[in-house]
């Protein structure tokens, strides 16, 4: 991982713009095709399940939630252990595991 992105196997460090003194992150464990099931829970108590790869981005999880629930992505926030999951980051950046519960926060619309 470098700058929140998974490095391609067929690229050199130079191709990925990694220079001297840069830090890369080695991520062991769930990678590639292995999936984890995340439990997505709203403040109203609604629950949905999302299957995602540990190397998938937070954005891809938001896309899956939108497909299932129809919420606009721009309003959704995912929170895990009190920390907002940042768009563009990979799930393994947050050490998510199978059946972890993630809080889905969606602001109420006008008059709600």
Would you kindly provide a written description of the structure presented here, covering whatever features stand out?
- By secondary structure, the protein is α+β, with helices and mostly antiparallel strands.
- It has a domain at 35-105: Ubiquitin-like (UB roll) (Roll).
- It contains one helix and five strands.
- The chain has one helix at 58-69; strands at 35-42, 47-53, 77-80, 83-84, 101-105.
- The chain has a five-stranded mixed beta sheet with strand order 2-1-5-3-4, covered by helices on one side.
- The longest helix has 12 residues, at 58-69.
Question: Any chance you could write out the topology, listing elements then pairs?
Answer:
Layout: E1 35-42, E2 47-53, H1 58-69, E3 77-80, E4 83-84, E5 101-105
Parallel strand pairs: 1-5
Antiparallel strand pairs: 1-2, 3-4, 3-5
């Amino acid at each position: 991982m470098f700058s929140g992105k998974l490095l391609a196997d067929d690229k050199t460090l130079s191709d990925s713009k990694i220079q001297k003194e840069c830090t890369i992150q080695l991520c062991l464990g769930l990678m590639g095709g292995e999936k984890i099931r995340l439990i997505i829970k709203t403040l109203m108590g609604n629950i949905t399940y999302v299957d995602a790869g540990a190397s998938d981005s937070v954005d891809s999880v938001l896309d899956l939630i939108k497909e299932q629930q129809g919420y606009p992505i721009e309003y959704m926030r995912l929170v895990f252990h009190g920390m907002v999951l940042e768009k563009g980051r990979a799930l393994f950046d947050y050490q998510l595991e199978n059946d972890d519960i993630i809080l889905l926060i969606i602001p109420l619309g006008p008059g709600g």
